[in-house]
Amino acid sequence: MRNAAIAVIVHSMGNMLIFGMGYTSQVLAQRLRALGWTVRGTGSAGDIAFSDRAAVEAALSSATHVLSSVPPARDGSDPVLEAYGANIKEEWLEWIGYLSSTGVYGDARGAWVDETAPIGRGRRSARTQADMVWHAMSSRTRVFRLPGIYGPGRSALDRVAEGKAHRIAIPDQVFSRVHVEDIASGVIAGFDGPAGVYNLADDLPCSQNDVIDEAARLLGVAPPPMQSLEEANLSPMALGFYAENRRVANGKAKRLLGWKPAFPTYREGLRALSASTRPSMASADPAMASADQR
Hints:
Blueprint: H1 4-7, E1 15-19, H2 23-34, E2 38-41, H3 53-62, E3 65-68, H4 79-88, E4 95-101, E5 112-113, H5 125-137, E6 141-146, E7 148-150, H6 156-161, E8 167-168, E9 177-179, H7 180-189, E10 196-199, H8 208-219, E11 226-227, H9 229-232, H10 236-242, E12 247-248, H11 251-257, H12 266-276, H13 286-289
Parallel strand pairs: 1-2, 1-3, 3-4, 4-6, 5-12, 6-10, 7-9, 8-11
Helix pairs in contact: 2-7, 8-12
């Protein structure tokens, strides 16, 4: 199996343009810059205004790689493709990437889903439409489907510390998740892998309650009480999160990209976060923030 960390050295002087410099994209940009890449991006954390067409087209003309983490509009249209799709399809680009969501699979009643599973059966109809359009637009496109994203400032540690964590009594409910650093390494591994769709998830789908319990243990505090959905008084977005139940398989990315998560389960991920930093008191709930902000 090819070692993705070694393979990427071939591209040590690449030029990446990222549409939407969000939480995950900033981690990826930091990794790439450390490898000698030039990375530019749109969004509040980027250096280019999305609406500045001249600046965006200039950045595209010098880019070797393009990645979008911008979510679709509610009607399913994709703002990046609508504004710059024709430019992105130009042949000078070596690689095109899109950060999608495993929400496109909908509710699988706890079953495993891989990249061959049907999509479009869930509440994410706009995300599904964007996923399909990006996948079909070019033979150079890699679509990365992501589950719940966690990392520094966005983890169960933060939610427990802030008193915002919930344990919900739903038997047999499971979710998949992925550490933000493992997303970055998966995208980088995708530079040399074949085009296509890849799930980037850890190895252990499990109950959200298990994650909250572990976070409380690491913090040395009692976990929050078990509640029903009604007692928890969750937002509509959070209720949608609990309405779906699936296990996300990551074997394709391992086989074809040589990717291996550094944090194969939430235990390693939370332990590393606990050892490296105190939970951020200003962090957002990761389950909600990761739904469409990549």
